[in-house]
Structures are given as C-alpha cells and as structure tokens.
Specification:
Largest sheet: 5 strands, antiparallel
Order of helices and strands: EHEEEEHHHHHEEHHHHHHHHH
Shape: globular
Number of helices: 15
Length: 300
C-alpha cells in the first residue's frame, strides 16, 4: 500500500541515526523484522515517488511503520520554520525528505547509542548487526535485537567465554561482545543490559518529562549527555533533545557565534532554548546540511 507522507527513504535509513543499523536493502526494497504486540512481522518498504510503498495493510503494522519513520511529522511546516530563520535557510533543499528513523525497540537504541560513542557509523552499525546475529532471534533473513536479560548474560570477551564455556580452543571463542568489535564499550553494554533486566523499566521512560528522562539515562553505564540525548531523540521520540558533540558545536559556532569557541554543553543548552520542540530535527538537518553542502570541510 502507498503511504502518502513525503520522505527520502534512502537518506533517512542511511543517515546514521543511532536508533538501529540501516535496514537490509534488496532490489531497491528495505526490509526488517519488527515486533508487533510481541509477534514478529516482516516489514518491507520502498520508495514510490515521494512516498512509501509498504508490504502490509494491517492497521497495527501501518501504525508502527508511521512511528518508525515519523510519518505524522509535518515536514512542510518544518521547512517553513527553517526558512524563517536566516541561519537555517537552505537546509531543507539539501536534506529534503529526511525524517527521524525511530527505534522499534528502545533497548536496541540504547545499545546502539552506547556503541556509537567515539565510533564511526560504519563500525557501530556493523557491531550492532553482529550482536543481533549472535543473540537475537532469526525470522527469514532478519534478526530481532536481543532482550536485555539475554544480552546481560553474554560473555564479555574471549577469555571469559573460554573460562566459562565448554569450548576447549580459545581461538574458537567468537560469541562474545568484544568479538563484535565494540572494544571498551562491551563492559558498558553488559552493565546497561543488567540494569534494564533487573532494575529499570524502559516503558516508563515514555511517560517521563524530558528532564526526568534525561537524568534517568545518565544513570545508565556508558551514557553521557550526548548519548543520552541520542537515546531520547531516536529511541523515545523526545524531539526537544539536541544531541551535541564536537561537530554540532562547530556548526552551531559557525552559524550563530562567528566561529567562537563555545563548550558542547553550552551548544546543547542553546539548541534546546533556540529551537524548542524542533531541536531534534534541526540538529539532524544541521549535520546533514553540513555534510552535503561542504560546510564540514571548512570546519575541520
């Protein structure tokens, strides 16, 4: 069925948002397994003009797809907002059709965001995909993300796997977190998994205010302010979040502060105050505008 909400599917899925790795693309069609009321459903979507062609017509599946690609967000209204700000004019032309790529599973977003810290998009997406293959459930060609109680019991490294398993050759110890290429983040991932398996209810985050949710995320091992905002934006749809790192700092400084050196924390505060409920989308468009327009090269 055709879902008439404008989107650039390739740009959205491959924009490096830490909700999840890109969906698998085969013959121009993106696919993944998505749980609906705990039951797996194979989602397949492709670009149809400015819109999406979706393989399912079930109301719950369509509602889930609308959420994942944030199809209820009014892009045209947002473009008018961008064009009403001198510093943001033109961004919509470089990023037209870019939407939030929200997590079907917030726990996957938490682990993905932890994995993304000081890491390239290519590396963290490969690592998270390997985690899914190692500990998730397979449905067709796709894997669900493992639940927190499963990942909390994953071996940390090959030494632990060798000592605690029945494998007699350490060179064959490959089902451990560090073997997924996550490096020092392995310990954070397992501790975070333990936290959500034993103490913290993820569903409660959706009912919190942004400030309460932000402070809650900072309690998660391996999560600082930038990762917390990524989790809240891409995992829980808190659009007032403004994830800020050195690149966003340079872009904001160039656009608003004449290139002056300002702290990342000040950039975050500025973004949230200046853009309000549009902060998350402005951040997303800022970064991709800087990449596509060549501004990133000027800021290095």
């Amino acid at each position: 069925m055709i879902i008439k909400a404008p989107i650039d599917l390739d740009l959205t899925i491959n924009s490096g948002q830490t909700s999840q790795p890109p969906w698998m693309k085969v013959d121009g069609e993106y696919g993944n397994v998505v749980l609906i009321d705990g039951e797996p459903a194979i989602f397949k979507v492709k670009q149809s003009g400015d819109y999406l062609d979706f393989n399912l017509e079930d109301k719950k599946a369509v509602s889930k797809l609308n959420y994942i690609f944030d199809l209820d967000f009014n892009l045209n209204k947002f473009y008018k907002y961008l064009n009403s700000h001198e510093e943001l004019k033109g961004m919509s032309e470089f990023c037209r059709g870019l939407r939030l790529f929200l997590a079907p599973d917030p726990f996957e977003c938490i682990i993905s965001s932890i994995c993304s810290a000081n890491n390239s998009i290519k590396r963290w997406t490969k690592s998270v995909s390997q985690i899914k293959e190692n500990w998730g459930n397979k449905h067709g060609n796709y894997y669900t993300f493992p639940q927190s109680n499963v990942l909390s019991n994953a071996y940390l490294d090959e030494g632990e796997e060798f000592n605690l398993s029945c494998i007699s050759d350490i060179s064959k110890c490959c089902t451990n977190l560090k073997n997924c290429g996550v490096g020092y983040r392995a310990a954070y991932m397992r501790k975070a998994s333990e936290l959500f398996a034993l103490e913290m209810d993820l569903s409660q985050i959706f009912t919190m205010s942004y400030d309460e949710a932000f402070q809650t995320m900072l309690e998660v091992p391996g999560v600082g302010p930038k990762v917390a905002d990524c989790i809240l934006l891409y995992g829980f749809n808190f659009k007032e979040a403004f994830p800020s790192d050195v690149w966003i700092k340079r872009i904001v400084s160039y656009l608003y502060f004449d290139g002056k050196d300002i702290s990342v924390s000040k950039v975050r505060e500025f973004g949230m105050e200046e853009f309000g409920k549009n902060a998350g989308y402005v951040q997303l468009y800022m970064f991709h505008y800087a990449r596509r327009s060549g501004l990133i090269g000027k800021l290095k």
